[in-house]
Design a protein that fits this description.
By secondary structure, the protein is α+β, with helices and mostly antiparallel strands. It has 16 helices and 17 strands. The strands form 6 sheets. Strands 1-2-3-4-6-5 form a 6-stranded antiparallel β-sheet. Strands 7-9-10 form a 3-stranded antiparallel β-sheet.
Length: 471
């Protein structure tokens, strides 16, 4: 293909290949500019499904004129080859920029706001991307975001009055397409998708940007799909404590398995801008309080139809309007931000509960740590590194025997194999590691509750967070 002429376009080099086509860098000899040409594989030209997706990408992207969406210049046929000519984007994919690590918070806001601005426009135009992921987001050398690959895009309204043409652009319920790790639960189950599926996918991208990890990572696609449907991701703060609490809250709301509780693209964009403004000003943004009855704006923990608030949302002071809070009337489709108001006074009940849970978690953490240490120390004593006579009769030896001996007797009754060599009983080492894992699992619920209470206490108080505290 190198050196081939496609009308006014001369193919210069191959950029990459996907499941449906090959992308080349070319030169527009008429306008003297580099372009990218995506060709449909010859084997797919006769496949109605592949051809439909190829045509859909051209139609979907061509109707979207936005600085954050790659521009389509031309669609044509050269011999038996169908091709799309689009702007040539010089830069790196977001996936390559991340490389398994979180990006700085200021860069997060820059990339996130540009991306959501493009997605909000696509949704306004009735286009659902359905395959949003870090690999499909390019960042140019000047920091400009470009959303790529509308090959799986879906248009909410038909482009043609011909009933046969409509079937080309609509996807049947029950057909699962997209990238497993970024699929929304409804998309994974083959249900009809809407714009809220793109929000879930962007939640996955945001999570990766904030932590460097995937929220539902698993060894196989089947296991990943199961986690998308049934598991909650590790809280962002555990992987990156520098992420502002309200940004973490927004990410987890986008990842809500119930699409009714996910925000719309326009609201995600507005909240990102507000969080960025508060972060740049060295202030902690107030948690979002919702006025109205639309469940799409409720907290990730649930929705109260009587108040229009999620279970994790902070309510405005009694008798006051939501000035300074993010509000959305039920009849309105946009998010409005009031002028800054004084922070609500700290909730004494939440503060007391937080201290109690934190103290309990610390006590349990230290108490449970003694179990694996008892096995490991007994292992060392048995190996002869520490003389048993040195600690015989002490509380330490008494405690070790009380913890280790009954379990070892049970193990000897159950297993016929003894992992003993030269006085070293390696079963003690295995049990010690198992005790460490058990300790971690037992502490998880306490850590989760403590984190939620901490966010409530920090969010309700007038505390200001300085830049130095974030470093």
């Amino acid at each position: 293909m190198i050196g081939t002429q496609f009308g006014n376009y001369r193919i210069e080099q191959k950029l990459g290949a996907g499941g449906m086509g090959v992308v080349y860098k070319a030169f527009d000899t008429e306008l003297d500019r580099p372009v990218a040409i995506k060709t449909l594989l010859a084997t797919d030209s006769a496949d109605p499904g592949s051809l439909a997706r190829f045509l859909r990408e051209a139609k979907a992207a061509s109707r979207l004129q936005h600085s954050s969406i790659v521009t389509i210049h031309h669609f044509g046929v050269e011999g038996d080859t169908r091709y799309i000519v689009m702007e040539f984007v010089e830069g790196k994919t977001l996936k390559k920029i991340l490389s398994g690590k979180p990006i700085p918070i200021d860069q997060f806001f820059d990339v996130g706001i540009q991306t959501m601005d493009g997605i909000a426009l696509a949704h306004e135009k009735g286009v659902i991307h359905r395959d949003l992921k870090a690999e499909n987001i390019m960042v140019t050398t000047r920091g400009q975001v470009k959303i790529l690959d509308f090959g799986l895009a879906k248009m909410r309204e038909a482009e043609s009055a011909n009933p046969d043409d409509v079937t080309v652009y609509k996807t049947q319920a029950g057909l699962v397409i997209g990238t497993v790790s970024h699929m929304s639960p409804e998309q994974a189950m083959g249900k009809e998708v809407d714009v809220r599926s793109d929000i879930f996918s962007m939640g996955v991208v945001f999570y990766e940007m904030a932590t460097g990890a995937m929220p539902f990572d698993a060894p196989t696609p089947q296991a990943t799909l199961a986690r998308v449907l049934d598991s909650e991701p590790t809280p962002v703060y555990r992987l990156n404590p520098d992420v502002p609490p309200e940004l973490e809250r927004l990410i987890h709301q986008c990842l809500n398995k119930n699409r009714d509780f996910r925000p719309e693209a326009s609201e995600v964009l507005s909240r990102l801008k507000a969080i960025q403004a508060a972060w740049m000003g060295g202030e902690q943004i107030m948690p979002t309080a919702i006025v109205g009855t639309n469940p799409a704006y409720a907290g990730a923990g649930g929705y109260d139809a009587a108040t229009g608030l999620g279970s994790g949302d902070i309510r405005p002071p009694s008798g006051a309007r939501a000035t300074g809070y993010a509000t959305r009337p039920a009849s309105s489709g946009a998010m409005t931000w009031g002028a800054p108001a004084e922070a609500a006074p700290p909730d004494p009940k939440a503060k007391a509960m937080y201290k109690a849970v934190r103290a309990t978690r610390i006590f349990l953490s230290l108490a449970l740590l003694s179990l694996p240490l008892a096995y490991l120390l007994y292992f060392v004593v048995g190996g002869g590194i520490i003389r048993q006579q040195a600690i015989e009769g002490t509380f330490l030896m008494t405690f070790m025997r009380a913890v280790v001996v009954p379990v070892m007797q049970l193990v000897d009754r159950v297993f016929t194999v003894r992992l003993v060599s030269g006085g070293w009983n390696f079963m003690l080492l295995i049990l010690g590691v198992g005790a460490f894992i058990l300790r971690f699992l037992l502490l998880m619920p306490f850590e989760s509750v403590e984190h939620k209470l901490r966010l409530r206490v920090e969010g309700s108080g007038p505390r200001r967070v300085s830049r130095l505290e974030r470093m």
